[in-house]
Amino acid sequence: MRKSALAAAGAAIVEPVSAVVKNAKTTGLMQDDPRPLKVLLINGSPRRDGNTFLALKEVETELLNNGITTELFQIGRRAVRMCINCGGCKKNNDNGCVFDDDFCNVIAQKMAFSDALIIGTPVYYGQPNGALLSLLQRVFYSNGKLVQNKPASSIAVCRRGGATAALQSMNMMFEMMNMPLVTSQYWNIAYGTEKGDVKNDTEGMQTMRTLGKNMAMLLKKLHAG
Predict the structure, then answer these.
(1) SS3 for the chain, per residue?
(2) Please, what are the domains in the chain?
(3) Nearest 10 degrees: Cα torsion 58, 62, 68, 72
(4) Rounded to 5 degrees, what are φ and ψ at 85?
(5) CA 61/CA 81 separation, integer angstroms
(6) Model confidence over 54-106: pLDDT tens digits?
(7) In this predicted model, what pLDDT tens digit does every residue of 189-207 receive, in sequence order?
(8) 189 — phi, psi (to 5°)?
């Protein structure tokens, strides 16, 4: 009985990894596929070129240096709906949120053609930006099949504290979707208050570069066939 329990536990651990490989095969993203590997980066800050943007750019530069293509998407200041638990997406066979007047379905379609996801957020009261959370909750609930099993990571930018709590909030969504978490040399945190301050956080910028390298390495290994 103990052996069967251990075997079941082993299967549960292995399955998400095998699902990643299966996803690569079914979407045609193995080594012989002509389309380059791509990471979608989402800036969850209302500022288009603030500290969160600069931290994401540091990750993006490292991805590009390692041969990974990227897209950096800004949610900006446009109004975002929250999920109202209407069930419309389930009636629509998980083909998107019925509210199509913000970025929810746009991001979902971008994920369909991306192999990994990195989300950046400023820290507000120890939490991620509320608009970003509302957006991602709807993306994952209404279009979960497009994000499942794809590697993911989050970064948090703060003035002083609350970044680890914000990271946990972000990463919990990834874990529910069987998305392998990509780590760095430290928690993915950078510090800054005024615009551009984050560039003076030497360790934070190094952490961002290491994250980019680790994401590139994992993607190449998963899609090597």
Answers:
(1) CHHHHHHHHHHHHHHHHHHHHHHHHHCCCCCCCCCCCEEEEEECCCCCCCHHHHHHHHHHHHHHHCCCEEEEEECCCCCCCCCCCCCHHHHCCCCCCCCCCCCHHHHHHHHHCCCEEEEEEEEECCEECHHHHHHHHHHHHHCHHHCCCCCEEEEEEECCCCHHHHHHHHHHHHHHCCCCECCCCCCCEEECCCCCHHHHCHHHHHHHHHHHHHHHHHHHHHCCC
(2) 2-222 (3.40.50.360)
(3) 0
(4) 55, 45
(5) 32
(6) 999 999 999 999 999 999 999 999 899 999 999 999 987 767 999 999 999 99
(7) 999 999 999 999 999 999 9
(8) -130, 140
Contacts of residue 57, defined as CB under 8 A and 6 or more positions apart, other chains included, come to: 72
pLDDT(24) > 70: no
Q: Over the Cα atoms of the chain, what is R_g?
A: 18
